[in-house]
Design brief:
Elements: E1 6-8, E2 14-16, H1 19-28, H2 30-34, H3 47-52, H4 60-99
Antiparallel strand pairs: 1-2
Length: 106
């Protein structure tokens, strides 16, 4: 996740787009978004339904501060996920040779 970008709306107000902020906003609004979803096999949310969902949009500096704080957490999650994957591969390689006695631990 990264900071996204900022700019000025047509009315002169500033905005700040942040994928982190959008992710958490949608996650926290999921119940409101999906309550009017339709479909028997897969629920579908139409653009019309999305337009009815009310979302509080804070000032761009608040969104920027939020993003600066959570981006480091997302980066750490990515690093830990990669480390976990490497440890899983190492375990899967090492366990069979330990079990059949090819290697002993001293």
């Amino acid at each position: 996740m990264s900071l996204g970008n900022s700019g000025t709306n047509g009315d002169g107000t500033q905005y700040f787009r942040s994928s982190s902020f959008i992710y958490y906003t949608v996650k926290n609004s999921l119940k409101a978004i999906t309550q009017d979803a339709s479909g028997s096999t897969f629920k579908e949310v139409s653009g019309t339904v999305l337009k009815t969902v009310k979302i509080c949009l804070p000032a761009s500096d608040v969104v920027e501060q939020f993003t600066n704080k959570v981006d480091s957490i997302f980066k750490r999650q990515d690093v830990l996920g990669q480390e976990n994957q490497q440890l899983t591969q190492l375990r899967d390689w090492l366990l069979p040779i330990l079990m059949n006695g090819q290697v002993t631990v001293v």
